[in-house]
Amino acid sequence: MSTSRRTFLGATAGLAGWALSGGPVRGATASGTPDGRPGPGTIRALALDAFVVFDPRPIDALAEQLVPDRGKDLIDRWRTRQFEYTWLRTVAGQHLDFAAVTEGALRWASRSLQLSLDPGTQRRLLEAHARLGPWPDASAALASLRARGLRLALLSNFTPAMLAGCVRASGLDGVFDRVLSTEAVRTFKPDPRAYQLGVDALRLRREEIAFAAHAGWDAAGARWFGYRTLWVNRLGLPPEELSAQPDVIHSSLGELARALVG
User: Fold this and answer.
1) 57-130 is a CATH 1.20.272.10 domain
2) Max Cα distance, the chain (Å)
3) Which pLDDT does position 26 carry in this prediction?
4) DSSP string over 19-55
5) Taking the domains of the chain in order of start, what are their residue ranges?
6) Kind and range of the H or E element at 181?
């Protein structure tokens, strides 16, 4: 059996114990994780990256609509620069909020492709980030997790306004115990200060919080911080080569919820 398979089964078995008892229990992989760190103990809360819950694909479709035949190229370059800019600004101590970073990345991407986007087109692409609906499996999965007593939080680079807009557009008002933007500490993930927001807001130890990541680099960052990390790998990508493997990999939020609550 491969190491990744053993890791997956061990972590899933431990977290599934929470479901079987009707509430959080001790000892998910109590003997420790594969890298020798202690197991997380009681899992009382789940923090989720925004893209685990909110579906960004409508932005792709809008780009194709507004920039025919070039939309995919625009999206690919835009998203790459969007996150590269967050990392560069964090390292350099030159913070701008995620909305401003996203706008700058869009301008660069359009120029790099020699596209002339009028202000209305740019505005529609930017504003779409604050109106994202849920992935098809998200609402039911979150409801089942809440029904079993797990506290839920969003923990995202999105600005508070972007998060509020997506929660509203998704019909998820009242689902999350906390909606946390890294803007509160003027940084971006994977800065440890960003993940610390979950500990401070939920008033729990990091070992009591599991983190659900959309991106492999975010899963690595959360793992480095000390969260038990669940990677919702909707794109079927390999784990990042960052010496910090996620504890569990699922293909969807629905699959994650079924593993936790049975």
Assistant:
1) no
2) 58
3) 26
4) HHTTS--S-TTTT--TTSPPP-----EEEE-HHHHB-
5) 3-54+132-261, 57-130
6) strand 178-181
